[in-house]
Amino acid sequence: MEQVPSEERPTPGTAGRPETPGDDHDPTTRQLRLFLTLARELHFGRAAQRLYMTQPSLSRQIRLLENRLGVPLVDRTSRSVRLTEAGRTLLPEAENVLTAMSRLRSRAAEQSRRVRGRLVLGFVAGESAMPYTHAILDELTRRHPAVSVELRLLTFGDQFERLADDDVDAALLRPPLPPPLRTMTLAVEPRVACLPSSDPLADPAVGRPLTLTDLAEHRMVDMPASVSRTWWDDWTVNPRPDGTPVQYGPVVTDIEGLLTEVARGRAISFLPEAARRLYPRPGIHYVHVTDAPMSSAALAWLPGRHERPTVAALLDAARAVAPPANTPL
């Protein structure tokens, strides 16, 4: 049997009576939550138990809510509790208010977590045009619109130095990368041979992919001394599988220089498959090489750099859009 303490029982004519001057007359979200729980249970004892409060305290809050709204919400008797007509009418409105408040708090928390500041993202060659780069930057902007991103072109010769010197916060590079760089793989694709159109092997009439053996007598474009030899030997597949060393030709520092030297017929190079789309140039032809190693693209940063809010935000965005199989190297 529902027992309502005498001091909590409604007094005729009290609903809608003005409260003590200076009191806030607007219902609180807590009072609305208590009302919703009581409306579900229709029993002060059970509702109070669910709310981890005493029955008199719950009854007092419901009475306060009724006074603030100016209408009775529940009919109380010693045997039952039921919603009044006003209670039934206002119940969905109370639910809407609580839903809106929850959404407001969620949006406020989201705003508080958003990062602000400037991020300098370096890139080599055509990495800024790749789909994964656009996906990462779009995700970063969606999550943290107050982060401004500057894209900075790096050369083959200074890509690692500018990252180490903190000229850029992170960079889109092509492994293998020297320690102590940390990397996250973004994509993997085949390598192609970049040949001058005048080369007999570039003739479409050949009609077949090439092998490293086919290219054994070709000179490869070389890099300046500032470039990691391990990195460039990997790209040129030096030495070849049979132990033959690669013969090097002219030195270049960036992709445009590389393409120019190839088009002039002075050397060849290996490039990622995406070069077909990114660098269609007069005098150049791309041919698939069946036994060349695959090429990977990576987001690179120095240890400790991930503690910067902008870099952490970039890494989170990259993880969100990178394929599940792409894990840190």
UniProtKB/TrEMBL annotation:
Keyword Repeat: no
Compositionally biased intervals (Basic and acidic residues): 1-10
Chain spans, region Disordered: 1-28
Keywords: DNA-binding, Transcription, Transcription regulation
Keyword check for DNA damage: no
All residue ranges annotated as the HTH lysR-type domain in the record: 27-84
Family recorded in the similarity comment: Belongs to the LysR transcriptional regulatory family.
Listed name of the protein: LysR substrate-binding domain-containing protein
Origin species: Streptomyces erythrogriseus
